[in-house]
Amino acid sequence: MSSKVVLPGGEKVPQLGIGTWMMGERASARKEEIESVRLGVELGMKLVDTAEMYGEGACESFLGEALAGLRDEVFLVSKVYPHNASRAGVIAACERSLKRLNTDRLDLYLLHWRGGTPLAETIIGFEHLKTEGKIRHWGVSNFDTDDMNELYETPGGEGCAVNQVLYNLTRRGPEFDLLPWLEEQAIPLMAYSPIEQGRIKTSGVLAEIAARHSVTPFQVALAWVLRNPNNIVIPKASRPAHMRENAGAREVKLDTQDFAALDAAFPPPSRKRSLEML
Questions:
Q1: Beta-carbon neighbour count of residue 165 at 10 Å?
Q2: Crossing angle for the helix pair 240-248 and 217-226, nearest 10 degrees?
Q3: 57 by DSSP, 3-state: which?
């Protein structure tokens, strides 16, 4: 049974989902990428994340095709550019995303990162979209702790459902203050690039733990991010074999010895670090 993460308000969503950054941009890969996404949904990874920025809409159009006939099974997430995040801009951007995705609503709509538009304006736009039934939840991405505090001090800011940030074994900065803040508010952290886009070092400790559990180093790295029930995790997999590998990470049960070895190799933060972005 797939693990679930609880959103503010009580809705449960899959803990392990599908990231799509840089998908849908090459015609030669399209058939295999569609097969991969559909397989992921079949395997229970029924949260799919995209953004208007990805391929300047190409990824959303790709997903409109890839999710044909599956839309109602999926918790669909997209993100708005900061320069489109004014009250009117966010509404217009959402309409464009819905058209490309071939759907009538988004399950979650995120502000991709902080920009020059006052948060109050963006929130008003998001809430209008909720009232109209165009989105079901809204949230933010790449917000550090001070950004989250500012959001919560803004009227309506407590409506935030998720904060999507860069988080993996090599990027543990959020553990110092951001993760505790989110947990206190019962807001899930959505971890993007949870295996550092496949660049995480798979030799050494990861290889040793993987061998002990008869799994792959990438599965160990994913299982580590999945260890926290407040984390939603969205690795990308352009190939079906990689999608199956990602899905298998849900079955990896790391033990105290594993966590100690990973902490030694990838130390947790001892001080505040600025939030990293890719």
A1: 25
A2: 50
A3: helix
CB 255 within 8 A of CB 224: no
Reported as type and span, the H/E element at residue 232 is strand 231-234
How many angstroms separate the CA atoms of 233 and 190, rounded? 6
pTM above 0.90, yes or no: yes
Cβ burial 85-119 (10 Å sphere, 16+ → b, else e):
bbbebbbebbeebbebbebebbbbbbbbbbbebeb
What amino acid occupies position 112? Answer: H
- Nearest CA among 38, 56, 57 for reference residue 100: 57
Identify the pLDDT of residue 242. Answer: 97
CB atoms within 10 A of CB 203: 8
Average pLDDT, the chain: 97
Cα radius of gyration rounded to whole Å, the chain: 18
Query: Is residue 202 very low, low, confident or very high in pLDDT (cuts 50, 70, 90)?
Result: confident
